[in-house]
Amino acid sequence: MKLMLRSAERVEGQEQPYIPLGLLKLRIPFVHFEWELPEMFQGMIVFIVCVSATSYLQDLFGVSWEVALAIVCVHDILYAVQNIFGDPMVGGWITPAIPLIGAYLGTIPAGPDRIHALIALQLILGLLFVVLGLTGVAGKLVSWVPSSVKSGILIGAGISAIIGKYGFLAVEKGGIGFFKHPISFSVGVLISLFTLFSLGFKQKKHKTKGKNIFVNFMAKAGLVPSILMAFLIGIIVKEIALPQFTGWGWFNFPKYLISDVFPKFSIIGIGFPPLRIIIKTIPMALITYFIAFGDIVAGTEFLKETDKAREDEVIDVNPNRTNFLCGIRNLIQAFFCPTVTMSGPLWTAMMVSIAERYKAGKENMYSIFGGAATFDIAKAIACMWLPLLMLVKPVLPVSMSLTLMVQAFGSFYVAFGLVNTNQERGVAGIVGGILAIAGPAVGLIAGIIVAIVVQFLAVDKNYKMDL
């Protein structure tokens, strides 16, 4: 039995039904797409990764867990808006930028200035998404940045994650990663790296061809198995406390938005960021956009390939719409409830998981929008259900550590693939080191200057020689 109304049935070989709204295409659950049970259950499992963002907000801004969770709830609701208004991508954090953002915010005194810096960052990022995306300037701007500098940005993100408080910073200096949870941290990171990046696990997936239930689950669940194992081991070795169940209803996030977030943590309450902070934040916003734009390009190409797998549905993939909706999401949060993770275009692991089931045929998933939207809606609902929240609360700091360590590995993985010559590798290393130590403004400016001097200055393109 399909969980949708007859209005969701499409003409063979055409787009899924929608209400046209110019660039946007409104699709209402059940009315315009099927509710997919597998994606619902998946969303209610992987929500643990999303809720771990509360740890970053608590550490950087000193807010309570309830206030941080209220911000995360809005953040996750907005991901569903992305799908409902016509974008088939599964949105996610701009994860490689998170350690850089955390390091940048850490250089600003705690209090109104640090909150203003976060607001300014998400505000500028939102405007970049909307303006550069809709004008088509985004691709040209990113193409002007040398590959060595792009690689350096990713290297800097990886280094920042490793040396940061969720990585290998000493406990006496505020670290809450390896040196606070050495066993659970190590178990979780090693399982994550094995299932996500190792050659051995890739071979295992290829050999079983999806027929092994355990391997299939480990491949599709992303970070969740490693987080759960780290949680279990952490409890056994007493690095992580047992859950304390204090409620069985729903988390009343609007209460905390009204009482705390709006008056103390938003433009509504503390006003627009001062010009000096806006100017200081521009380099960090540009770096964040460069990273996110790469996700848009990758997600667009992936969905185009996914579209070729089936003839019964046309998937309308529009990078301009993706940019616009990402911009709107970030602008909404900048004004009302800013968050460190930013609101990005793509959660790669979940997009791949949903697309693979979609490719298996109409009987498995009627529409790509059903899979993506059901996942995001269920994930947002899980973020508000108290029993689930109380269950995972003790493991959230370790969950954030695992997320950032995996992202560090992934950043290096991609970064070294962007550079081909020794000159490019050297520039990338310099940029990464400066970014991690001196911050985004110095890193970006120094990187471009070094790239010009090493790669382009006095170069005769017509003179050939072995390099």
Short overview:
This protein is mainly α. It is built from 21 helices and 2 strands. The longest helix has 33 residues, at 275-307.
Can you walk through the features of this model?
It is a single chain. The chain has one domain. The longest helix has 33 residues, at 275-307. The relative contact order is 0.21. With 467 residues, it is mostly helical. α7 crosses α20 and α7 runs antiparallel to α21 (440-456). The protein has a two-stranded antiparallel ribbon with strand order 1-2. The chain is built from 21 helices and 2 strands. It has helices at 37-51, 53-61, 65-84, 98-106, 112-135, 137-144, 147-163, 182-197, 199-208, 213-220, 224-236, 253-264, 267-270, 275-307, 319-336, 348-359, 368-382, 386-392, 396-418, 422-438, 440-456; strands at residues 19-21, 24-26.
Give the topology, please.
Layout: E1 19-21, E2 24-26, H1 37-51, H2 53-61, H3 65-84, H4 98-106, H5 112-135, H6 137-144, H7 147-163, H8 182-197, H9 199-208, H10 213-220, H11 224-236, H12 253-264, H13 267-270, H14 275-307, H15 319-336, H16 348-359, H17 368-382, H18 386-392, H19 396-418, H20 422-438, H21 440-456
Antiparallel strand pairs: 1-2
